């Protein structure tokens, strides 16, 4: 499983986005878990992350090194289509997490949850175990730890030996942390899941179906959290940049 090998990708500003459907994505990751060959980092990326990578070479390096990047954001799907090299469909990270757990029930996969607050992570573990009784929650802990505690956290995850590791930390630390430690963690599939634990635990609500169907989940989140306005400015900036750079967006860098 590699971005240059069996997975068809489209390069958006040098970031290789998977062209697989949700179903195909789940199958690839299922095979990755069952083969247990090498650790795979899955990034569910959106235009905000693409813009951050263009501004920060360290973030770009992390994204280009990931084994699989799925088009989570509607803007990415639009950009690939607009530039004439479309992806199959949007693959939202929240739904991918649930699809993997559904498959995991067939194999009694072990799941480790890392991130968010102690209350949220505990409630997430309880609810996921209720929803998917055949999976094994082999461990969980909150995301409030610094570099000094990395070794201890990694040791506890390795001891639990999960098949899937879901990580929910700050946007600036989540993917870099997974990238830095994936070889030490030795988990077949590790995926950054952003605010998914907040939704699963009931702390926040997912956008209503109407917003989801209109692909306006980002707008719903902005209405609920106006403090996100600064980050959200990356969305129109991304759209304008893609329109201006149309001929060069999908060129492999």
TrEMBL record:
Coiled-coil regions listed: none
Enzyme class (EC, first level): transferase
Keyword Amino-acid biosynthesis: no
Pfam families: Glyco_tran_WecG
InterPro entries: TagA_TarA (IPR034714), WecG_TagA_CpsF (IPR004629)
GO terms for MF: N-acetylglucosaminyldiphosphoundecaprenol N-acetyl-beta-D-mannosaminyltransferase activity
EC number annotated for this UniProt entry: 2.4.1.187
Pathway the protein acts in: Cell wall biogenesis; teichoic acid biosynthesis
Signal peptide from the UniProt entry: none
Membrane-spanning segments: none
Catalytic reactions of this protein: UDP-N-acetyl-alpha-D-mannosamine + N-acetyl-alpha-D-glucosaminyl-di-trans,octa-cis-undecaprenyl diphosphate = N-acetyl-beta-D-mannosaminyl-(1->4)-N-acetyl-alpha-D-glucosaminyl di-trans,octa-cis-undecaprenyl diphosphate + UDP + H(+)
Highest taxon listed in the record's lineage: Bacteria
Keyword check for Electron transport: no
Keywords: Cell wall biogenesis/degradation, Glycosyltransferase, Teichoic acid biosynthesis, Transferase
Function: Catalyzes the conversion of GlcNAc-PP-undecaprenol into ManNAc-GlcNAc-PP-undecaprenol, the first committed lipid intermediate in the de novo synthesis of teichoic acid.
Family to which this protein belongs: Belongs to the glycosyltransferase 26 family. TagA/TarA subfamily.
Protein name, as recorded: N-acetylglucosaminyldiphosphoundecaprenol N-acetyl-beta-D-mannosaminyltransferase
